[in-house]
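G., the chain you wanted modeled:
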Amino acid sequence: MTPTRAARPPFTVLVTLLVALTSVLLAPGRAAAASLQEVTGFGSNPGALRMFRYVPDGLPAGWPVVVALHGCTQNAAGYGTGGGWLQLADRWKFSVVLPQQQSANNLSSCFNWFQTGDIARGQGEAASIAQMVDRQLADTSGDASRVQVTGLSAGGGMTAVMMAAYPEKFAAGGIVAGLPYGCAQAVGSPYVCMYVGATQTARQWGDRVRAARPGYTGPWPTLVAFQGTADYTVKPVNMTDLTRQWTDAHGTDQSADASDTVAGFPHQVFRDASGRAVVETYSLTGMGHGQPVDPGSGGEQCGTAGAYLLDVNLCAAYRMGRAWGLDG
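Predicted structure as tokens:
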């Protein structure tokens, strides 16, 4: 059975509809919504990743860039939308780079934060992500001094990689349920890192960062970290180790200079000698493995609940953005 072809409307009706549609599209102040776009030819791409980006309509030159790295089994579009980054990009005006893993590199679509050939400067996936940053800055005339990198789980592990291997490219990093740089090399297994943690002193953790970029004297990226206390995929000890690693890299101690609660969750701030916050941590009481989100239209709300996107009435992307001054 074939569908019945609808009768054609009179020509005058078509003209009327076309004029009405044109007047709506060309109305003053109205523009087509921005969309996620794939970018090819961004460099030699030794890690064989895909590059997606989101640029709000009318974004002028000189605005910040956020690199957002998805977790295992996720993709660029889902993480960018679900995590709240595209929503905040429209609200606060910055562009977003969304690298995407390919199953040929990792069957679970995890970034290979544990593979030596993917975490060294100039090699593998780390080099591919650095090339994406260069391409985005060139295309959008972005502010090279205001590039941040963030990620969930394996994306969080790769965030630590980028902070260590390419510290000159990033002002700050945001790690959600992630792992310290060089953890797998310290214990010989990514699973030991995830489920047990590595036995390293703060100085040993800091030395791993310094070895990733020999001769670099700073400044190092600042860190905002989020971790669920009921996370059985990446144990909370990893946020403790991240704190040790990055406070040592910044030359400060491991004693919090401020402790309070945000949305009912424990929050700590570690400052350097000048009083600048160099590490912030959020301990999400009772939260499992995932990105904290707070769906809604309120001023502090962002994100959409889903797999590994957990509605806990706190949006991690908003908290990171505030810490990085993206809202100003």
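Residues 124-140 form the longest helix (17 residues).

Shout if anything looks off.
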